[in-house]
Specification:
The chain is 16% helix and 39% strand. It contains 5 helices and 17 strands. Helix 2 links the parallel strand 3 and strand 4. The two termini are 29 Å apart. It comes from Helicobacter ailurogastricus.
Length: 271
């Protein structure tokens, strides 16, 4: 038996549409916001205020960008994209969810995020940080240090450092483990390892990691933000101080969504 969470009502939302969104979809959302009598703004805020949230109109990519926003606002997604694994609802169901938000009838789920550092540059990831080769040919030799100790030297196309929330993203496509998104762990999954002995690794959230490459490569956050890593330049990765806050309906069940979106345990193709 689950207890109903005690949340403050959401009093205002800021709308973040995905790029090149069809105007009719934004107009449909605005109609729902007005019908639900939910105050909203089409411009992002410059300061954080309580009982406000970021409404992401699009797919998971739009939502991931919002989770990295400097203000760290609670976010929820309205799905008009491709997969919509992380989103709370779609346009057909947004009116009902908006009314629930106004009553405080929702779940505010806090998810672990990753922080990478290259010199003085900080990189934030809600799903993952991926170290990958720059070219299509050859392979990387990556040294992985865990809490100051050399744990492994990988010969791979890359390494995925994923959060539990991101375990069903790039990580799952290369054979990584699936974790409940509320777990507190860091996943390390090799991409095309040149060895039969390399396996995915799951660490506790307090692990401090260092990656050193034998050649220039790239570091990509959530498949969206790209940085260059020079040869022998260390990349430090650890749990971020902030968390990603996702607002979800009370009735949402992670494993039900997993079955629906990925046809987990089913012979039917995913939706």
């Amino acid at each position: 038996m689950t207890t109903k969470p005690s949340n403050k009502p959401i009093a205002r939302v800021y709308v973040l549409p995905k790029p090149a969104l069809k105007p009719k979809l934004l107009h449909a959302l605005e109609h729902c916001l007005q019908e639900a009598k939910m105050p909203y703004d089409l411009k992002l805020p410059t300061a954080r205020h309580p009982q406000e949230a970021l409404l992401c109109l699009g797919g998971d990519g739009t939502l991931l960008g919002a989770l990295r926003h400097p203000l760290n606002l609670p976010c929820f997604g309205v799905h008009v994209g491709h997969l919509g694994f992380l989103t709370a609802t779609n346009l057909e169901g947004v009116f009902v969810f908006l009314k629930a938000l106004k009553r405080g009838d929702y779940r505010a789920q806090r998810h672990l995020m990753l922080e990478g550092k290259i010199g003085k540059q900080c990189i934030l990831g809600a799903n993952d940080l991926v170290v990958s080769k720059k070219d299509y040919y050859g392979m990387l030799e990556l040294q992985l240090f865990i809490d100051g100790v050399l744990a492994n030297t990988y010969k791979v196309d890359g390494l995925i450092f994923a959060t539990p929330l991101g375990s069903t993203a790039y990580n799952i496509s290369v054979g990584g483990s699936v974790l409940d998104p509320l777990c507190q762990n860091i996943l390390i999954t090799p991409i095309a390892p040149h060895s039969l002995s390399e396996r995915p690794l799951i660490l506790g959230a307090r692990a401090c990691l260092k990656v050193v490459s034998n050649q220039a490569c790239i570091v990509v956050a959530d498949g969206q933000v790209r940085h260059t890593l020079k040869p022998k330049q260390p990349l430090y990765i650890q749990r971020a101080k902030r968390q990603a806050i996702l607002l979800q309906p009370l009735e949402r069940n992670y494993f039900k969504v997993l079955k629906e979106k990925f046809a987990w345990g089913s012979s039917k193709p995913p939706h």
